[in-house]
Fold each of these.
Amino acid sequence: DDFAGRGVWRYAAALPFAEGVSLPEGDTQFHRVPRLEDEVGVESLRVKHEGMNPTGSFKDRGMTVGVRTAQALGVGRLACASTGNTSAALAAYGARAGLETLVLLPAGKVAAGKVAQASLHGARILEVDGNFDTCLDIVQDLAERGEAYLLNSLNPFRLEGQKTIGLEILEAHRADYGEYPDRIVLPVGNAGNTAALYKCFRELVQAGAMDRDEVPKLTGVQAAGAAPMVEAVEEGNDETRRWDHVETVATAIRIGNPVNAPKALPGIRETGGTAVAVEDDAITQAQRDLAGEGIGVEPASAASLAGLRKLRERGDVSADERVVCLTTGHLLKDPDAAAAAGADPEPVPGDTAGVLEHLGS
Ligand code: F0G
């Protein structure tokens, strides 16, 4: 493997294999955003941009390990249900491994860039008449019948790879500030990433590499139209109620039955974190604001900043906190959302005089 020891695989000691099917993934940007830091009003704010992975989302970190596992097991067909990013990652890593891939997508609810990726990387795409949760029900049935190997975040090997987000954040944050962050804010859909980060922290504490009181507060953000995790946190439950009707501009997290809730809810509670729901217009504004710092993200990713803002305004996050926001997917994943949030192109004549006149100069 050309990429052994790089990115995710730098942490092979914490992973079930020494190397994986790698493009390579991980080692993503850890941006300083001083203007947003001032505006939100926290001691420090960093943005970990997971949209910079090879297929444009954090799913690559899970898939490099997940597809390696599939190889080791010698399975035939790989499958997932997806709001888009998992399908793009599975298609690319499956192609790299030379394995057949099948993806189930909720018809009409997946952003254009993600479908294009799954398609060109050669996945067989089933457009399901139903939402993501229906797709996941079906693919779990297929896996139980031995029709395919499941590569959703229910697969624990996926979460092993995603632990490395936590390792990179902790390492970089301590190098810059001499301490770990107080809080990590992330968008939540199926709650796989939340569960992965919690496992990362638990393992470090168990290994004696981090004190219990140094563990960052895991803070989940959902869209108001798809917020069963927020409901569970507010009610103090360890499981979620299934939402049958979900809607949000952040299609990546348009999920009503977060299957990793039993692993993630204790993580939010035990770390002293919380969960918050944000409206679509706050998500879009946060997407514009991150873009204004040169950081291009898809709507679901911007939910992290929108959630931080809301918690800071409420006083649930204090001014002396060092915070990291996770942005999970790239702007180009959802070109339609980006175009709708941004400025409209201005038609002008095809000559300099006409352009100058239009500019008013
Ligand atoms: N952000 C983005 C961009 C995502 O694609 C997802 C999940 C999440 C956040 C939420 O992560 O599920 O670990 O809580 N996307 C999945 C998919 C569901 O199919 O691509 P989570």
Amino acid sequence: RQSLLRDIPLREHRAAAHPLPPALAVRAGAARQRGRIDRSIWDAVGLERLPGRLLARAEGWPPTSDPAVNEAHDGLGETHTLFWTRFARDSIDDRGMPLEASVHYGRKYDNAFWDGERMVFGDGDGQVFNRFTLSLTVIGHELTHGVTQHTANLTYAGQSGAVNESMSDVFGSLVEQHARGQTTAEASWLIGEGLFTEQVQGVALRSMKAPGTAYNDDVLGKDPQPGSMAGYIDTEDDNGGVHLNSGIPNRAFYLVAEALGGNAWEAPGQIWYDTLTGGALGRRVDFAGFARATEAAAAARFGPGSREHAAVRSAWHEVGLGL
Ligand code: ASN
Ligand code: ZN
């Protein structure tokens, strides 16, 4: 079926795949059930045009022979499941927004990104990077950029940009921990594990537990992330170091999870989710303001002086953002 339908535009595909009489189709739309996932994975066939040339897999279609397509499909599923089952969030916009991803973007493309509407994954150059769909944390990271855009909408520069990045790492890691059923003690707390080829001396892009230790390679150099304010990097590069200083709030989240034990998507994830979606964060919030907001969220949900509240306070203290 798929090879026959491949070059037909999306709307016709959907009509062909799910023929419904118009009256029923309207009723189904009106009665749309919250929490139902709707994924489309596109193949960009090595071009840098989006969404891409071919609809490779839509909701309800069987797996294809392309691992990148299936990994993207499954990874979007695991991410949707975390947000829906643990935080009652219905997709990126909390209104069931269809999830779209494009794979095989560009030639030897060494990155993945959220373009404001969809997730996009490169194949990697094969020298430093494997394909980016190999890591569930990366898929969760990119989808979380969409959630952030639809909630706190944190400005992607400087400290608010590093908080934006950290939110994507936090929920990216939680997606993987949730899918694997891992406790805080069992989790790797790595972002992008398995992306580096065996030619690279390194385990992942970043470590939330020990920022600065994910790689140390002749070509790439040493992982530059700081894990506390003492190592804060002032730079114009990378939108003001958004992927560097994110190590500081990343480690704060890890420390909260370590102090509380159990599954990090429970109290720690709930506090961070409440902070992201609660409306108290300014778009240009700095680290200190973000730290105060997580403390307020912990106190609001678990009570002032609760162990959750205390864990948040001491975590920020440990990374140099004492409240
Ligand atoms: N992978 C990066 C990210 O999502 C790409 C970027 O910086 N735009 O943060
Ligand atoms: Zn990011």
